[in-house]
Amino acid sequence: MAVPKSRTSKARKKQRRAKNYRLETPALSVCPKCGEMKLPHRVCLKCGTYKDVEVITISE
Ligand SMILES: [Zn+2]
Predict the structure, then answer these.
(1) DSSP state of 27
(2) For a surface tag, which of 14, 24, 29, 37 has the fewest beta carbons within 10 Å of its beta carbon?
(3) How high is the mean pLDDT in each 10-residue block of the chain (60 residues)?
């Protein structure tokens, strides 16, 4: 079994874990059709359009 040669320092450990503690929320853009917040460059999940073309049909 592989065993660490030396103990990981507190700073190294925190540096490694810091990647997971994200402060920023993901970028959002406004859908031009329904005005809902959506992820940029993605199909709007509310109305199913991308660049004014209906790509998927939302059943509701
Ligand atoms: Zn939309």
Answers:
(1) P
(2) 24
(3) 94 90 81 87 87 74
